[in-house]
Specification:
Largest sheet: 7 strands, mixed
Order of helices and strands: EEEEEEEEEEE
Structural class: mainly beta
Distance between the termini: 40 Å
Strand content: over 45%
Number of helices: 0
Number of strands: 11
Helix content: under 10%
Length: about 120
């Protein structure tokens, strides 16, 4: 069974930084892409950043220049470095792993709160 466990969330003041981690474990098939999504209260889940095995990265316009997605294949871990945080970044952040067979797995999320 595949599991994704996020960590690193918390409360930070505007302008601060956080680094989220997502550890993947279990019987992993070929990974096609990994990414971070977020969901604020009353809003739909939205893409934050993704990267494919081929090396392509994609960021939401709202986080470009502030957030960086990266991965460590040896540790089966994907990271999201978040700098210059804003109150509107407040949300639950979810890790996604997309396998080559089309199956996607989600973590349970980690809360990020940014105070003004």
């Amino acid at each position: 069974q595949v599991q994704l466990v996020e960590s690193g969330g918390g409360l930070v003041q505007a302008g601060g930084s956080l680094k989220l981690s997502c550890v993947v474990s279990g019987r992993i098939f070929r990974i096609n892409a990994m990414g971070w999504y977020r969901q604020a209260p009353g809003k739909q889940r939205e893409l934050v950043a993704t990267f494919s095995v081929g090396g392509n990265t994609n960021y939401a316009d709202s986080v470009k220049g502030r957030f960086t997605i990266s991965g460590d294949s040896a540790k089966n871990t994907v990271y999201l470095q978040m700098n210059s945080l804003k109150p509107e970044d407040t949300a639950v952040y979810y890790c996604l792993m997309g396998q080559h067979d089309g199956i996607n797995y989600w973590g349970k999320g980690t809360q990020v709160a940014v105070s003004s």
